[in-house]
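Appendix B, Record 12. Input sequence as logged:
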Amino acid sequence: MEYAPVHTQLVHNILNDLWLKLQSAELIRADRMEQQLIESHVLFVAKNGEGRLTIDYRDYRLRRDAVHFAHPGQTIGVFAESEQGVELYAVRFAVQDDAKTAAGFPLKGEVPIYPETQAFMLCDLISACLCSDHSLERFRGQSAFLELMYVLLKNIRLLPERDPRTALDRTKAYIETHYKENLTIEQLARMADISPKYFVDLFKKTYGKSCIDYLTEVRINNAKRLMTRSDIRVRDLAHQVGYSDEFYFSRKFKKEVGVSPSVYMKNRRRKIVAYTPAILGQLLALQIMPYAAPLHPKWTHYYYRRYRADIPLHLSAYRFNRDWESNMEALVRARPDIIVCDKDSLHMSEREELEKIAQVFFIPGKGLHWREQLKLTARLLEAEHKAECWLHSYDQKIKSVRDHLNRELKDDKILAMSIYKNHYYVSPVRGMMDVLCHDLRLNVVPGLLPGEARQAISAEQLADLDADRIMLNICQEPESLREWQSLQSSAFWRDLKAVRRNRVHLISSDPWREYSAYACERMVDDFLKQLHGDRPDEFRI
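Logged structural output:
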């Protein structure tokens, strides 16, 4: 095969300047893999099924004619698009730079390859070698990994102008910049140089939504952005996003957003900042959509997926608020009216900088129940009636769910626990315990030390707790995930009553580790889903 110049340069960088060492090869079979932080380079190779791979903020379709690379410090997630789920290999490897280069590993994101490459067959071999008890076979796994990298580099394909995927990406980008125009399927299909019918089918298969739905989404999202900047008239707003009929635009907007354009604009007149995820959860319960909030596909997955188009300014949501200086810069430029934040989670210098930007409402975290936090937030923002309505609705829901669970679970003992690195914790966070113990009044196994939260215990002590069900939260980072894999292979874990009866419920940090009104309601919904799966007729509120 004759290499294009870019191929030659990539091969030169890989072979002459970098050392690559295989670490592991895992075949992921799942309908969903929660977004997790990675500490090594990862190569993803699709094997079976249809789905999507998320690397940080980018979303990719899994397919045989492309592989994907993620780098240390990024976050990754997998979502199936069929009932059969997806199968893909995650090949983790280490990279050591030669002193002559500072470029690092050059491949990232999606890398197109020729579809006949069948890289997954080499992944099968690598996985089998690493599982062998013989050191020579495990050594062969390293050789097979280098062969895989060679095959991928040799089969990287430059996308020609007539490649359907390239043309499709080009039309999608065209929609994003020309949404104000009167676009038609025929026009976009001509741009992609394919038939209208094939264009419609290929667009839906590639991006998970129809071309018309995507055009509507782009127009509505741009309308939302315009609404936050001025008191623009609905007629002018409709014209600016591609609708000649303001009444049709209003109907379309209300169908997609849930409220009319005028109501949406009225609710967005104040630039309110939710400085932490828990504050965002309180504001949403009050039906207040903030101008800025921390959003990320991993750290605040639910909020990012559902509200990223409604919140114009995305603050860093990195754990422990390590990026607060960059948040300050963004807020200075945004010039908000009000900043609402958790008083107990701020650095002193961070608090001082916030107070220079706008009026700041500090909500106490420790020692104040989420209900009181909600009422205080509502009072500061003049939304007391909405808080009362939300709490009334929540209490009605809780009573109905509690009556149902009492009949179904009876006296089942439930253990709420988490795994963080190589430690096991009982009663890990107060939001989880508030919902399970106080609201739903379930028979939750107490910790070994009464009255103390987040108690570390040994794995062997789990048997003494004798739980009928286990609600398990696993921190989505490499060391914790390795500990979880090790725990599953242990004899004492497999012998636990809840494990034998298939009553271990894996719960996500989002919402179970967030302390807010909105998160608590989502915990209730998630608990019901854990019991009934996707069978809504099992229980109706």
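The radius of gyration is 26 Å.
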